[in-house]
Amino acid sequence: QLVESGGGLVQAGDSLRLSCAASGRTFSSYTMGWFRRAPGKEREFVAAISWNGGTTYYADSVKGRFTISRDNAKDMVYLQMNSLKPEDTAVYYCVASTSWYDPGRQEYQYWGQGTQVTVSS
Predict the structure, then answer these.
(1) From the first residue on, what is the mean pLDDT of each consecutive set of 10 residues in the chain (121 residues)?
(2) DSSP strand pairing (90-97 vs 66-71)
């Protein structure tokens, strides 16, 4: 089970940190990531992190502004979002995969329910 938290309403330029609590499986050995879906748009990959945190991968649209991290001891994954823009407004989903081969395109078997992030201009 993946449960997201930390979403909310912020202004452009603000920061927000999303958290994802993982339970029920040994997610510490899984690739973890974040996707988002904006109103009227397709689901979009945001970021991914390897099982030990040694490798990260970002969508071009968030590179340099967002940072993904994990704490396997706490079964937590985080997404630090800085310099937020109105176009970052979306529902953000925490995801998990048993593999790492093409993190921006591969299948993620486990999905959370999502948390809303709204950035006003």
Answers:
(1) 97 98 89 96 97 96 98 96 98 96 92 98 93
(2) unpaired
